[in-house]
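thread: overnight batch results

M.L. [08:02]
morning all. the overnight job finished for the chain we discussed friday. pasting input first so we're all looking at the same thing
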Amino acid sequence: MYCKECGNQIADDSKFCPSCGKSQGKEAVSNPETSNAGLSELKDEIKKLKQEEFYHRLKQDQSKSKSTAFLLWLFLGGLGAH
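M.L. [08:03]
and the structure it wrote out:
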């Protein structure tokens, strides 16, 4: 049978999945194809969201760097420290 949470194959009498630790009870499935329906789409969506988050953080970091450079230029230039 297969874990209902992660889809890994487990022993028929397992109460918990050795991979993810999820309790199996009566909800474990015997066919991973039906339990993993849409799993690849979900993984693709997670990957897309992670890429968007990385891009957003990169933009924030660039903005902070520009602000820091401007402030250094302003203070050091204003004080005549060249």
